[in-house]
């Protein structure tokens, strides 16, 4: 007599075998016969077949709906170094998270470089605008209560040096970077959680993508240390990166999709002020 085997006992190997049989074009009756020959009770085998194929089809549909993955910037950390040489400067590796891809660097900028960036940016600040997804233009946005400005890429010796350092650290062409943006947050100001990639569903996105393709990585550099608050949060994994002067947080997103868990924001500044410089990295040359 055959013993009753519950569908719970379908191992990952069996499930994979079932999917392979279906892929190879074997009729369900033949697969079922193989299972009953191997000792499966018929009704249990049918339930297992149905459940396995249904799950497989659902997973496949999810996969197919995802935008294609892209190569992303990536620091060279295979040997788990405590510090890496970024062109002209040794930078500490403070935290290294795989999924979402987040790396925190210590001492990416010197304090003098931070102060110089703030001094250059300050006279050029205006209320931060975000990209208008409908038109591809810019707009003032309530989710972003900071002030900001953009440097041109290669604008001056300091910007050029920092851009070359970023390209070396993240192993990504300098030409694929947008101009450095500087943001200033006063007490109470924040940047609500958002994705940095352009939403493929928005009508303005194709226009934006003509210049350099998608954003695939971000480096946020802290130009001062706020007294309280102002961390960079990653709500999907309950991570908050402390905003420490000279440090930087890097994150990448291989597809324009929430599955990257790259949702992030600038937490409200509770006391003091916050200055950051952001570098967004595109898939291709950004001219
Ligand atoms: O201010 C922060 O910590 C985050 C900034 C940010 O998300 C951005 O500039 O895209
Ligand atoms: Fe962002």
From TrEMBL:
Gene3D superfamilies linked: q2cbj1_9rhob like domain
Molecular-function GO term, any one: iron ion binding
InterPro entries on file: Oxoglu/Fe-dep_dioxygenase_dom, P4HA-like, Pro_4_hyd_alph, Pro_4_hyd_alph_FE2OG_OXY
Enzyme class: oxidoreductase
Alphabetical list of PROSITE patterns matching this protein: FE2OG_OXY (PS51471)
Alphabetical UniProt keywords: Dioxygenase, Iron, Metal-binding, Oxidoreductase, Vitamin C
Native organism taxonomy: Bacteria, Pseudomonadati, Pseudomonadota, Betaproteobacteria, Burkholderiales
The EC number(s) this enzyme carries: 1.14.11.2
Cofactor: L-ascorbate
Entry protein name: Procollagen-proline dioxygenase
Pfam families tied to this protein: 2OG-FeII_Oxy_3 (PF13640)
Organism in which the protein naturally occurs: Leptothrix cholodnii (strain ATCC 51168 / LMG 8142 / SP-6) (Leptothrix discophora (strain SP-6))
Domain Fe2OG dioxygenase positions: 176-283
SMART domains: P4Hc
């Amino acid at each position: 007599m055959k013993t009753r085997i519950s569908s719970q006992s379908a191992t990952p190997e069996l499930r994979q075998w079932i999917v392979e049989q279906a892929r190879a074009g074997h009729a369900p009756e033949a697969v079922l016969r193989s299972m009953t020959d191997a000792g499966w009770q018929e009704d249990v085998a049918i339930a297992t077949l149905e459940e396995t194929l249904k799950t497989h089809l659902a997973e496949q549909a999810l996969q197919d709906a995802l935008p294609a993955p892209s190569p992303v910037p990536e620091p060279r950390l295979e040997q788990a170094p405590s510090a890496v040489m970024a062109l002209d400067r040794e930078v500490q590796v403070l935290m290294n998270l795989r999924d979402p891809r987040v790396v925190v660097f210590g001492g990416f900028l010197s304090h003098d470089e931070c102060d110089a960036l703030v001094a250059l940016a300050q006279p050029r600040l205006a209320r931060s605008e975000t990209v208008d997804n409908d038109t591809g233009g810019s707009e003032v946005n309530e989710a972003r209560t900071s002030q900001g400005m953009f440097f041109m890429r290669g604008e001056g010796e300091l910007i050029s040096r920092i851009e070359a350092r970023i390209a070396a650290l993240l192993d990504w062409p300098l030409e694929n970077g947008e101009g450095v943006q500087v943001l200033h947050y006063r007490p109470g100001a924040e940047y609500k959680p958002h994705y940095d990639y352009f939403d493929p569903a928005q009508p303005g996105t194709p226009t934006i993508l003509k210049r350099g393709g998608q954003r695939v990585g971000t480096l946020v550099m802290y130009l001062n240390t706020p007294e309280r608050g102002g961390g960079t949060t990653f709500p999907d994994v309950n991570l908050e990166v402390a905003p420490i002067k000279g440090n930087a947080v890097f994150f990448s997103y291989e597809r324009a999709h929430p599955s990257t868990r790259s949702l992030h924001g600038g937490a409200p500044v509770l006391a003091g002020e916050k200055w950051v410089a952001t570098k967004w990295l595109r898939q291709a040359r950004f001219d």
